[in-house]
Design a protein that fits this description.
The chain is mostly helical. It has a single domain, classed as Arc Repressor Mutant, subunit A. The protein has five helices and no strands.
């Protein structure tokens, strides 16, 4: 991981405005995930959620939002677990999107 990245104790960017797809890939490397265009579309939409509602989404609002804005991707919790190689979907999708850990998240 680059020493230039300022991360909190949970591995989230301290400043979400510094996020780039390259930083997302550095963070994704910790999950052994190579980001594709599909991953980046999801991460972009998670950032739109954050900008719209002023907080990082928990799992259910995250999935509902992605189903609305990316209907062609057939989003489900299982699909996100497969794509992002994690059972902690909301936590890691927000982390890769450069956002804070959602409230009430492990």
């Amino acid at each position: 991981m680059s020493e230039l990245l300022s991360l909190d104790q949970d591995g989230h960017l301290n400043d979400h405005t510094l996020w780039t797809p390259a930083i997302a890939q550095q963070l994704a490397d910790t999950l052994n995930v190579d980001l594709t265009r599909e991953h980046l579309h999801i991460l972009d939409q998670v950032r739109v959620f954050f900008d719209t509602f002023n907080h990082a989404p928990a799992t259910r609002p995250l999935i509902k939002w992605l189903q609305q804005v990316l209907p062609e991707q057939d989003i489900s919790n299982q699909r996100l677990q497969q794509l992002f190689n994690t059972g902690l979907v909301a936590r890691h999708v927000n982390r890769l999107a450069g956002l804070p850990k959602p409230p009430n998240c492990l």
